[in-house]
Amino acid sequence: MSQETPSPRSPLQAALGYLDWLINPFQRRGVVAVYDLLSTRSPTERGLYLNLGYWPEASDLDDACEALVMRVAEAGGMSEGDRVLDVGYGFGDQDILWARRRAPERIIGLNITASQVAVAQRRVAEAGLTERIDLRLGSATEMPIESDSADLVVALECAFHFDTREDFFREAWRVLRPGGRLVTADILPMPKAGGWIARLQQRFSWWLVASKFAIPPANAYMRPHYQALLALRGFERIRIESIREDVYAPLHRYLARHPESVRRLHPIARLAARVALRFDAASVYRGLDYVLATAVKSE
């Protein structure tokens, strides 16, 4: 059953919400409030993707977003016959793409933002894929999913939101069958490096993203700790690869050269994006790592 979407905001209410979110240093919106505010204003043209994209061969933002989706599927070994659990699925674009290109037996999705769930369920129905894709309202840290029931658990650019990521790892372990796989595309802080100016830029860029996009302080750790938590949970064959050079800088260049993508955002978010694009990518993203992580539940 589709979830009810929140009552639509007036243009003034939306504008005030964006101003409070972007400018007020004392507020910390929860993840649901952030994505309710962002609504369906995606900078992509052909879909409603919210990911940052994977850019080695992409020619536009939609291509880059799809490339990241397929890169994650490839890393997780998604194939025909798989029972896939996708947590934090946004508006369902990735699930529709996987169903068409990788043909898993079934995809179940969990997402805590009811407004996204309603849109995603409608889009899956319009695509004629309701028998293969089941998108639900539910939490990644308390999954209403049977133990040992999934071949693959996916968290595409969302695990940094989970309160906490470690609880998500615990639940992923529980729902995976022995030999099942976990794959995440995730944002972490970078190791401290450089002089005091560079370190200040690192701290500021991480603080800005963490405070505006509801990243719990408990999730602010780097790659070695990420690997240690997976190993502590019992995962094996852990691989954590930084792909930040194929994400942040090329996205920054593309948006700077294609203002039509920025114009799809809310006017106040558009203004904030234009300010960020005045700076070089190295300083804007200096504190942000971007990793592709895979792990296997022991048999």
Mind explaining what this structure looks like?
Strand 1, helix 4 (93-101) and strand 2 form a beta-alpha-beta unit. The two termini are 36 Å apart. Strands 3-2-1-4-5-7-6 form a seven-stranded mixed sheet, with helices on both faces. The protein is an alpha/beta fold and 299 residues long. Mean pLDDT is 95; it is low at 1-6. 38% of the residues are buried. The longest helix is centred in the C-terminal third of the chain and has 17 residues, at 196-212. Helices cover 42% and strands 18% of the residues. The protein has a single domain (11-297), classed as 3-Layer(aba) Sandwich (Rossmann fold). Helix 1 packs parallel to helix 11.
Any idea how many domains?
1
Strand order of the largest sheet: 3-2-1-4-5-7-6
- Average pLDDT value? 95
Radius of gyration: 19 Å
- What is the count of DSSP helices, taking H or I runs of 4+ residues? 12
Count of strand segments:
7
Give the helix level as a range of percent: 40-55%
Percentage of residues in strands: 15-25%
Low-confidence stretches: 1-6
Largest sheet: 7 strands, mixed
CATH topology (fold) name: Rossmann fold
**What is the straight-line distance between the termini?**
36 Å
Q: State the CATH architecture.
A: 3-Layer(aba) Sandwich
Helix and strand element order: HHHEHEHEEHEHHEHHHHE
Q: Per the principal axes of the C-alpha atoms, what is the gross shape?
A: globular
Find the CATH superfamily. Answer: Vaccinia Virus protein VP39
What structural category characterises the helix and strand content?
alpha/beta
Q: What's the level 1 CATH class?
A: Alpha Beta
